[in-house]
Design brief:
4 copies of one chain form a homotetramer. Chain A is an alpha/beta fold. Chain A is 39% helix and 15% strand. The longest helix of chain A is centred in the C-terminal third of the chain and has 20 residues, at 254-273. The first copy, chain A, is globular.
Chain lengths: 349, 349, 349, 349
């Protein structure tokens, strides 16, 4: 079974991340994040985002999202998000757990994206009614679970709704790198300049190991966050091993290079499938995911050799990573072409 | 500032653990723990403990303890532990958070150890009174925060109190390896044979990176634990990097070798301090920690060059690790000898 | 502004309930529920349900529902309920709070009712997937928020789905009396005989003051419930004032008499509206609620004199209580008739 | 068994409270606190305290305390209180539950009272250390669990420590009336003038039924409190029955009259015991409680006829209420005198 397209977290660490771990593995160092390696990593984020943000490393994306939201969402609050948001569909109630009982308010939207009108409608619906959880945050995913991206303008429009209604804006950036690579803008354009308060910046899907960064652009929200991280079991004693890869990845540009690579692989995959009978691309290819509607018999055959994920109502997902090779894309296209009885493979030559 | 004695988690990864990470870093693999490396790691625990236990890897000791306890402790429960337990003094309320509000019931005891009589007294005190949190767990630390160990008989005596009163027995084994090394018994003797229900087995302080294992000897307690781990943000997508070091460490014996090394360094340090005027060893040296009562001026001088931790009412802690060298021990002894005005260093020759 | 149709909890205590409070108000009595009055009230439930149930009094319906569910739902669980369930729409996240983060899984269904097929589908959807909250309970409302009722057979069919998938069955019976009155069956038929595990039996809407009863038909689920009630701030010191009305209400039949009265008022109201131009009854009238689709101008006029509640997508709700008089029904019908320009009032004569 | 001295919540409602309930029981009224009776009750508090406070009624003292604290204490916080505080000893972990995991930091102090030095010491001990819960509140009990009172100056001294360290000051005033009666000062003197941020004002022990008032003197802390009360199952639908007694009790002076009565009964009881062999009064009699150290055989005999509570390390508690009669005091003194073999009863004449 080939797992190359199962998820971008199926890939190993990229060489630069691994080297950074090895380099950091020298002698005794202060534990719990009071070390020089971690300090350097925090600085790298400030440089990348061109602002004085507060940065905290945690071990999973679920923890990054839920902890970040818990910084300002309490049990009586609601968190607005897309009905297909990872927050809702794949975190086993982590936002509810970390906040002690906040409710997710689900909003629909084509291709995994939220629009300001739909967000405002759900926020207004029960405004001021103490019988219903009070909206306190909007969380959007960038790039989205459907492989699409929000432009800076789109983020800003959502941020405006947030400001108007007293919500804070969180971005689940498990694949933030892919969005930046897709839009080719400075990271600040998609974050604090657009009104984002806090970002979960994913390391794992970008080629690192277990490290995710919670980046507060509004430092006031980070008050006591260190306590919350500790209490939630996310203050690693050997923190340098979570923080070490970041400076190299961010400042030498590997984060963006790899994201571009993954995005390009997805584009190439989609291109290879054009015209395949019965195979339909379900969402615009703007990042590193390709969602396909497959004829049942094609899926049956394909899933014997390739691991990929079915998404309720959204077909099957093929995810590219920093490591996806042209050969793998070609092999997948070939198999699909063969099973679909088409000549798709020819498109690639 | 030399951090070699600050904590055993100030040390880097041991070579075997690092090599295991590098070896595991090959190609795409199923994420979230469904990979062969993780399966092998789980098997390694079963082999080590000679029983069919349920094993889960998490990223910190705090998460290991709090999650393990939350498997069977709910908000209305109480968890009995030593007043100096890490659970109480250094986890920022993690047990309370993960259980949604359980109360820690603190018990005193010389040298960081709990006795069955004191435990039974606190359990009986409000038994059946709905106005007070109901004891549901006893958590002991092995080796203890004071650097001492419980024998298998001592654990069994505590387990008996647990059984008599409907409590489950948890062991915080952040330094479990040091206890096994100290007592030179099979791991089973200190765990399931003695009545332990669940163990937090520490990897970090034993020479690994971020990995801790939650080991349920009573598999019934592990029901739904996978959900709880996920919800708590502890299901790592690239799980193989948490699990990879364990098979090598456990099955090739490095875990025990390194623990013995750390214990021996502590013993050597204590030996070197014998007769130093004003310097008093506060607890028996049974594992890898040395607690010293230091004259104020000695502490003032020493703390300029060496990092170590003051413990309320327990003097200063010097902790040895898998990496502590004889030269470091000698250098610390020499400095202490010089500052204490004695000739302690001579004892070592 | 007339509040008679705003809600059945707008009504005062019925005379029998008030008399019971006065009678119980004699001399000193053991506090926290250890009194004879409370004992008698518990016995009254056993007699009514013809079974040995465990009964606990709390002060609100929200507490009754959320506490009952928290007895067996933990933070990683999901609770299946109707998308219009009070649990979801009007408890400000209480189920999430009391369980520490459980997720509500919403299911649609005509007229506020759940069907076994829809429930089974949502339970199966992510079965065994640790990335999503695990269904542990089904909660249905009886009579429903739409003023309809489940027959014993319908409850049993849902209970069968629960059994097949390891869920427990909770009934939000804030208006349980109205359902029993509507179906004219023994209470056991709609509860334990049909497979219900725990019932929130509403006193407030049935004519009592602040008292709701949590009734566990499966006594095993009630283990430790007394601790949970205390911790949740629901163990009243002067418990007799919560429990006193129940024996009179239940054993002298006032609960059922008043529920019949309220149901009859709703039926009469619906009858009076027949043929009113533009006024449409939205749900079958099976209990004490009438949901109307009103022309905007009718609503505008009517809401100047009468308090009633708009329900998203379900028109306007007019709720009858133990105290609703024929004159009030007639006055409302007359006003509606006048505003709708019809001759509806005539129907009543 | 006579329960008159078991607790002040063993007493029934006083006539004024009962009359107020009966008076409020007229016709339909808006539910959930939007009624005129509740509005009047809120105004009564503003008048009593001579300030614009925010007032919320809940059904138990445990809920009042825990909800009030949860308004500004989160899971990573600590709440400083006396080791004998009701919060710690008799609420089954409610503060931990409502805050999602805050830790109680226990401080000793003679006669149930906290001193500023001891409070400051515990707050400073781990200040700034993210490995330990961050103190965010001080909670003192007024009158205390030992039947003593804090003067306004004593409260102000504690408030100063709070201000210096960023803590908010909560008062558990389950017996606030008894403190005011004892010190004979305006209520403002013991609350906002002394720096109290929020008060749990007890109705139940003062002669009312189930009603406790949470009074925020710092209105900023009350932001969103209505949501939290609802989510916690404490927003009663028939709120008027919680609020109705307050205006009469507060504005007609019954609250103070009854508290004086209870205090006087305690004083009279203590006086009657003077010189009884082996019977020792353990705490100053400043409110309505008398704590006695009793010879074992006296306790054995006495407890056959009288209900009273043993307190760990504090002897036996005899609590007087609004209803305690001279005859009951005399009867208790007589029994004690007989059992202790002394002539104590004579002292009363």
């Amino acid at each position: 079974m080939n797992h190359s397209f199962a998820s971008d977290n199926a890939a190993p660490l990229c060489p630069e991340a691994l080297r950074a771990l090895e380099t950091a593995n020298q002698g005794a160092a202060p534990s719990y994040g009071d070390d020089a390696v971690t300090e350097r990593a925090v600085e790298a984020f400030k440089e990348l985002f061109e602002t004085d943000c507060a940065v905290y490393f945690v071990s999973t994306g679920t923890a990054a999202n839920a902890l970040a939201l818990s910084a300002f969402c309490r049990s009586h609050h609601a968190i607005v998000c897309h009905e297909g948001a990872h927050l809702q569909t794949d975190e086993c109630g982590a936002p509810e757990f970390f906040t002690g009982g906040a409710k997710l308010l689900l909003v629909g939207g084509a291709h995994g994206k939220l629009g300001p009108g739909a967000v405002e409608a759900v926020v207004r619906r029960r405004a001021g009614d103490v019988h219903f959880s009070k909206p306190a945050a909007l969380s959007l995913t960038q790039s989205t679970e459907a492989g699409t991206v929000y432009t800076g303008e789109e983020v800003a429009a959502l941020a405006e709704v947030c400001r108007a209604h007293g919500l804070r804006l969180h971005v689940d950036g498990a694949r933030f790198a892919n969005a930046v690579a897709s839009l080719d803008v400075p990271p600040r354009t998609l974050t604090w300049e657009a009104g984002v308060d806090v970002l979960s910046f994913g390391g794992s899907k970008n080629g690192m190991g277990l490290s995710e960064a919670v980046v507060f652009f509004d430092r006031d929200l980070a008050k006591d966050f260190e306590y919350r991280r500790k209490q939630a079991g996310q203050l690693s004693s050997k923190m340098r091993f979570l923080s070490a890869p970041w400076p190299r990845m961010l400042l030498e540009g590997h984060w963006l290079r790899y994201a571009r690579h993954a995005n390009a692989a997805a584009a190439r995959l989609a291109l290879g499938l054009r015209g395949l009978p019965g195979v339909r691309v379900l969402h615009p290819i703007e990042a590193n995911a390709v969602f396909l509607d497959l004829p049942e018999e094609v899926h049956e055959g394909l899933s014997r050799a390739w691991a990929y994920h079915p998404f309720e109502g959204s077909g099957h997902r093929f995810m590219c990573s920093w490591q996806t090779t042209d050969a793998e894309v070609q092999a997948l296209v070939t198999d699909l072409g063969r099973l679909a009885g088409g000549e798709a493979a020819h498109h690639m030559r």
